[in-house]
Amino acid sequence: MTKPTVKTPSTPLGLVSLALVIAMISVLMVSLVITGGSYTAAAPGLPDPGALVVLGTPILRLLTDLAAIATIGWLLAASLLDPAGKGGVVSPAGRRDLMRAAVAAFIWAFLAITQMIFALANILGLPLSEALNPQVIGTFANEVPLTRALVAVAVLALVIGIGALVSATTGAALSWLVVGLVAASLPSLGGHGAGLGDHALALTAGIAHVLGAFLWIGGLFALAMHAARKDFPIQTAVQRFSSIALVAFILVAVSGLANAYTRLDSISQLITTGYGQITLAKLFVLIGLGIIAWVIRTRISKSLTMSRTWVFARVASIELLAMGIALALGVALASSAPPRVETQFSSLGESLLGFSYPPAPTLSSVMLGFHLDPLFFTGSLIAAGLYCFGVARLKSRGDKWPIGRTISWLLGIGVVIWCTNSGIAAYSQVSVSLHMTEHMTMAMLAPILLVLGAPATLALRAIKPSHGNDRGPREWLVWFLHSWPTRILTNPFYVFFVYVIGLYGLYLTPAFGWLMGSHVGHIYMQMHFLIAGYLFYWIVIGIDPRPKPLPYWGRFMLLLMAISVHGFFAVILMMSTDLSLAPEWYSIVRPPWVTDLIADSETGGQIAWALAEIPSVLVMVIISIQWARNDDRESKRKDRQADRDGNAEMNAYNEHLARLAESDRRNSQ
């Protein structure tokens, strides 16, 4: 006689989630008191938004972050963690996660708009009733970086919600995940670090911290929900997520240290200031999270079955609680002024730059100087390391990889690091001629070397294929190389427009000065130069596969057109009688050694002309060599085919000619 099964009572997930949110808000309120970010009544006669606005703003930020985390977590599960259907179609579990992501995205959009109104009231010092005035919102919402970012977040969240509702493939889910990560990073652009010294490091670290934390918390949240519901066997999903979590943990830890460095003047402030004490508490929580994640990765994930999902659910709930506390501490820090004193410069130009004017340029200061850009420096080192790892994997199993491709890739990485982290990176922001030197090198020389490194071909050979319907890194790369976005990105007309015509839209319009006015805009330009150049040379001399390869005569024509249009642009700069490039920027950011702005602009045109010639000639030579080698391969292929079939193609052609001759002879009789 079998014993009846007794179900242990379980707390509803909704009540657990509500309790967690209440605990996070409580931690946030206590932390604001410690950091000095809580409400204090303003002195008579000064603007006072009131306690509701001052305290409601960080609470709404916390709730907005939670909605963003839920959206990102469900999209991560639908695209990478859930079992996949055939042909890239999501499974029933993935479809349900897409619906959950859509609901979370709509909540995210609503909370972002609400937070925008509260933040605007807080910044303007207005009570909420006055801030709700449409005229106030219409006048100031687009003028404040934070509120402008929150409006963009709301729009993107709405797009994600609608997209998730109508999507049914893992590829679409991954695309919406990327959009969600972009939206989540936007509010970091207007944080406290933008006004401090090392603002480049502060902004980069802030965005990296958000991306790592949201991926980590969101993925764990989705898996914990699946484990509690027992939707499907989650062992594979947990093992797959553990790799993502490891990368996210490293990203959060490193960026957190960088954030602390940019916001504190000394280590002693970790003890002597409330801001430092909360930072220290967050550090201890992060260490605890690392230990829990290590336990899940090394012990639980390897023995996880359907009957033991409760083990993962319990440990994950503890980790989520710690993550919630860390998130609340982070919101408190973001809502409070850091103890580091804002760097004061002697001129308006240096304040706009964020660093002192460099000395008069010399060959050594331009070539060998150092000006850290953490995004490009770290990204370049990672790209070089992954490439070398792929080459080592091929050699370890006895496969060959051309040494020239490795050298070309590493040289290209070196050029990118030089353009973004050497002395010229600082000089390019105050001199048109040196900016053109950096631009030409970044947009023409670096992409040629990187394209010849064939990174996609190396990845396809080095990464092992996945089994079953699930897509691994190799399958995702194949999907991307043959997807419709790649077909658009490698369309010759699109590439020509972005790479060449985009010069005129960037440099001969106010867009250049506007982008130069912020570190984010400067990064955007650098990325534009590199990506546009890479796409252009990928379709001209690229080795990696692409949807529709351009014939060699078409590559020559595209290159010649690019040379002509680019040369005309250089002539415009050389013939200009006034400062045509960003006068609103270079006339303000003007060190003493720049004595003639017009001459500097003319020199920039000459550099644009001269530096474009050498890469163009090099590319012509490469196209000629590739064309000749392709003809040789085609000739050898035909010879092998003739040996196999007894030259059937030639015999058929000769027979065809003989029939034509016989027909002509009969017609002439």
Mean pLDDT: 84
Helix content: over 70%
Number of domains: 2
Gross geometry: globular
Number of strands: 0
CATH topology of the largest domain: Formate dehydrogenase/DMSO reductase fold
Order of helices and strands: HHHHHHHHHHHHHHHHHHHHHHHHHHHH
Unreliable segments (pLDDT under 50, ≥5 consecutive)?
1-10, 192-197
For the sheet with most strands, the description reads: none
Task: Kindly estimate the percentage of residues that lie in beta strands according to DSSP.
Answer: under 5%
CATH architecture label name of the largest domain: Up-down Bundle
Structural class: mainly alpha
Distance between the termini: 105 Å
For the CA atoms, what is the radius of gyration?
Answer: 29 Å
Tally of individual helices: 28
CATH class of the largest domain: Mainly Alpha
Task: Summarize the structure in words.
With 669 residues, this protein is mostly helical. It folds into two domains: 314 residues, Formate dehydrogenase/DMSO reductase fold, CATH 1.20.1630; 273 residues, no CATH class. The longest helix has 49 residues.
List the helices and strands and how they pair.
Layout: H1 13-35, H2 51-81, H3 92-124, H4 128-131, H5 134-140, H6 145-166, H7 170-185, H8 199-229, H9 235-263, H10 269-272, H11 274-300, H12 309-334, H13 348-353, H14 363-368, H15 374-396, H16 403-421, H17 423-427, H18 432-452, H19 455-462, H20 473-481, H21 484-489, H22 492-507, H23 511-516, H24 519-541, H25 552-575, H26 583-586, H27 597-645, H28 648-668
